[in-house]
Design brief:
By secondary structure, the chain is mostly helical. The chain has eight helices and four strands. The chain has a two-stranded antiparallel ribbon. It has a two-stranded antiparallel sheet with strand order 3-4. Helix 2 runs antiparallel to helix 3. 21% of the residues are buried.
Length: 156
């Protein structure tokens, strides 16, 4: 049997107010990220987590119970968001690029490019807020290549 904890304990562990977890839990359900929880070869029925997350969203409170696997998954997602993900605004400041153009470029990604450059994370608000830090140089290179090809400037 797995241990259960509360939303309040999770918030304390992450250093957040528990109310700040409401939206990420809604995203967890809406984006089907719950399918990744406890992925041990498919031994656990996925609808078990969906039911638990649905109940958490429906009766969200500081004392709401959270399964240990969901607790650890949310904690890992938050750490990944803090350490490995960046947003368009910081990339543009660092690289002196136009934020609006880069955001538009990212919105037009195909599925393969999304998998390469955008992290699936419950704490990311949108695609522009979920860029993988280790892939930023490749992203900028691809953006500039497509921009130059669009302007028909020859690459050397």
């Amino acid at each position: 049997m797995t241990e259960t904890r509360t939303i309040g304990e999770l918030a304390d562990t992450l250093g957040l107010d528990y109310v700040k977890l409401r939206t990420p839990f809604k995203r967890l359900q809406q984006t089907n990220l719950y399918l990744v929880i406890g992925s041990d070869g498919g031994a656990t029925p996925k609808n078990k987590y969906l039911r638990q997350i649905t109940n958490i969203n429906k009766y969200f409170a500081k004392a709401s119970l959270v399964d240990d696997e969901i607790f650890n998954f949310v904690k890992d997602q938050f750490e990944y968001y803090q350490n490995e993900i960046t947003n368009v605004e910081s990339v543009c400041k660092r690289s002196y690029l136009n934020e609006k153009d880069l955001s538009k470029f990212i919105k037009n990604f195909d599925r393969n490019e999304q998998n390469d450059f955008i992290a699936r994370n419950m704490f990311s608000k949108n695609q522009s807020d979920a860029l993988i830090r280790t892939r930023i140089d490749d992203l900028i290179s691809l953006y500039l290549k497509k921009k130059y090809l669009k302007l028909k400037i020859p690459l050397r």
